[in-house]
Amino acid sequence: MKIAVIVKPNNGCDFYRCVLPIEYFPFTDFDQVKMFLPETTPLDESQKVNVDYISTINEFEPDIIFYNRDVSLRTIEFIQEQKAKGVKIVLDLDDYWEISTAHPVYQMWYKDKMNERVIENILEADLVLVTTEILRKRVLEYNKNCIVTPNAVPFGTPFWTKDNNIERVDSKMNFLYAGGSTHYNDILLLKNTFTKLGGEKYITDNAKFTLAGFNPLPDKHCEWDKMASIFSRTKSYQILDTRPLQQHMTFYDEADVALIPLVNNEFNRYKSELKILEAATRELPCIVSDTLPYSNLKGFPGLFWDNWQKNIKYCLKNQKEVVSLGKELAERVKEKFDIKIWSAQRYEIFKHLIK
């Protein structure tokens, strides 16, 4: 089996949904996999052995082309040409293609007709992989060959386990949010809570609130600035700049509790539980919005639902219990979202596709 994986560089969706799962496929000596990048991506010396431009994909003669959402800078005709040669197309989706008007990229998304491009790719795919059952039901309206393969991570491996050598700069309990600038409206859910907490000396003396991933555009007011302003209301906060994709998990090494706010809207309900998985690699309990997709994990220990002010105070006053609950959450998450199990399943699905 020869698999061509088309990846957009420094793209978190491609990393979690294509690169990482493929890395844990139980390949045999008869299998081959190669990564392909868009033509506009410069290749450095370390990449040239294992990565090539998409324009050379025909030289590889793959059995399967695997990619997330769409093939960057390529029209649907490229996929149709590959299908005509007998290549099987496996499309991965981890988000709904219709976004809300409140989303920061709303205008650009519809100007570029991204929703239509995603649907075109769904229609052409021989198989669509999705993160959740609710997203699968949407895809089934266009393509009946759709399977749920949830996000998963390699717990206990380097990068996916806690670095116990991290030196803490203070003894304050660290409440962390790690994400991107598209989550401003989610962070807005914490505004009133942070304002109240900033007025309580007990909180400012014993808690710290961290916004991780800060990456504003130069000389331009943007969502990041608004998010930082909300965190500043706690009067006990820190802002951590963005880190390379392969290092973003290190943010969690500095935390005690993960904050995972999410606006309850149509677009967000089709997301996955990934942020809980990330926190679980460091055995962190989470304070989470009581909405899909996170409510899929109702009953898991170590998850506190909504009521941000009450739950933050509870964690502060019950720190030993918080540590214990974080460990219990990690064990449950490992059982359900072990990438070795899900990659083995994907591998069998791919083999069956080319029979």
Summary keywords:
14 helices, 13 strands, six-stranded parallel sheet, 355 residues, seven-stranded parallel sheet, alpha/beta, Rossmann fold, 2 domains
Please describe what this structure looks like.
This protein is an alpha/beta fold. The chain folds into 2 domains: 167 residues, Glycogen Phosphorylase B (Rossmann fold); 164 residues, Rossmann fold. It is 35% helix and 17% strand. The chain has 14 helices and 13 strands. Strands 3-2-1-4-5-6-7 form a 7-stranded parallel beta sheet, with helices on both faces. Strands 10-9-8-11-12-13 form a 6-stranded parallel beta sheet, with helices on both faces. The longest helix is centred in the last third of the chain and has 18 residues. It starts with a strand and ends with a helix. The model has no long low-confidence stretch (mean pLDDT 92).
| Span of the ends, CA to CA | 10 Å
Name of the CATH homologous superfamily of the largest domain: Glycogen Phosphorylase B
- Say how many strands there are: 13
Report the structural category.
alpha/beta
Oligomer: single chain
Instruction: Identify the CATH class of the largest domain.
Output: Alpha Beta
Itemize the secondary structure elements and their pairings:
Layout lengths: L1 E5 L5 H12 L8 E6 L13 E3 L3 H4 L3 E5 L7 H9 L3 E6 L12 H6 L2 H11 L2 E4 L2 H7 L6 E3 L24 E6 L5 H4 L3 H7 L3 H6 E8 L8 H10 L4 E5 L15 E4 L13 H7 L5 E3 L14 E3 L2 H10 L1 H18 L2 H15 L2
